[in-house]
Each structure stands twice: as C-alpha cells, then as structure tokens.
Design brief:
Elements (H helix, E strand, L loop, with lengths): L5 E5 L7 E3 L5 E6 L2 E11 L5 E9 L18 H5 L7
Parallel strand pairs: 1-5
Antiparallel strand pairs: 1-2, 3-4, 4-5
Length: 88
C-alpha cells in the first residue's frame, strides 16, 4: 500500500500549498525568520493526501521580551534541532 506524504496546508501564509511532510504530525515552515506551524488533521484532501491546519507563528528562540518570559517558553522543535534554541 502506498502512503501519501504530500500534505495540503490550510490557512496561514501557505494556505492552499502542498508540502512533502513524510507523515509528521507537526510541520514547521520557516518564513522570514519565523516558524509557522501546521498540524495534521484526520481529514484527507480529494487526492487522498493529509490536510494540515495552520496553528500559528512562533519565533525560533521562543517568546519575545515584553510579551512573555522567553525563558519560560519552549522554542520551536525545528529551531532547537537546527541549533537556534535560546534558553528555556
């Protein structure tokens, strides 16, 4: 059985786009230095591909001073993996 890994993004800056996600439940797309999150849903596109809903935007290092305590914010998993993580 073939598994479709091309996701259809719903909402956010990439609304209507497709992306090869490899089956991940959380997909992060970097745009202009910010991480935009899309979360897999249980629904499927007409072509059988999974649908991912927009979940918002986060700074790669977590929270921004004055808005929230950056030390208390968990940064983006992708940013952490790429070595951008701040103190948290």
């Amino acid at each position: 059985m073939d598994t479709t890994t091309t996701a259809h993004l719903i909402g956010g800056p990439r609304d209507g786009s497709t992306l090869d996600v490899g089956g991940d439940a959380l997909v992060e797309v970097e745009i202009d230095g910010m991480m935009h999150r899309y979360i897999r849903t249980t629904r499927q596109h007409d072509d059988g591909g999974p649908l991912y809903n927009y979940d918002g935007m986060v700074a790669p290092d977590g929270g921004e001073p004055g808005v929230e305590d950056p030390a208390a914010r968990v940064a983006s998993p992708r940013a952490d993996a790429e070595g951008h993580g701040g103190t948290h």
